[in-house]
Design the sequence.
């Protein structure tokens, strides 16, 4: 059975209301932060942040198996106001992680993480559309 890790997508809107994603520079590649959590229940237990009935947390359905490691990735997306807590929790140093535009993130992240970003974009677009109904 493959090891499981859960991706953590931390996003924010900049002053121009453009979507930005926190990515981590691993030296040879750029990727989304990930945790040792397998599911949202592990996330809640480890961070104390409720994953359900919380508009700042989005459970993403995309599940991808990486080509090399066989890791199955699921993801939770968190709005940037939780950034400091999550940086500390995931042990992301200031110089490792930075925000990039969604278009850039899609180009830079590992191929199996693309589906996670696409799903987040779709969820946020739907939320913004229904907000004005």
Sequence:
């Amino acid at each position: 059975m493959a090891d499981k890790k859960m991706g953590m997508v931390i996003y924010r809107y900049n002053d121009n209301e453009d979507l930005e994603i926190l990515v981590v520079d691993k030296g040879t590649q750029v990727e989304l932060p990930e945790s040792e959590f397998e599911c949202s229940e592990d996330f809640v237990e480890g961070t104390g942040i409720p994953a359900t009935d919380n508009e700042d947390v989005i459970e993403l359905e995309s599940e991808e198996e990486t080509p090399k490691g066989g890791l199955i990735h699921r993801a939770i997306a968190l709005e940037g106001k939780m950034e400091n807590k999550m940086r500390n929790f995931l042990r992301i140093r200031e110089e490792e992680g930075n925000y990039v535009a969604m278009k850039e993130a899609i180009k830079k992240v590992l191929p199996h993480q693309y589906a996670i970003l696409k799903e987040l974009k779709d969820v946020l677009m739907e939320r913004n559309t229904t907000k004005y109904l």
Notes: The chain has one domain: 4-131. The chain has a mean pLDDT of 76. Residues 114-131 form the longest helix (18 residues). The two ends are 45 Å apart (CA to CA).
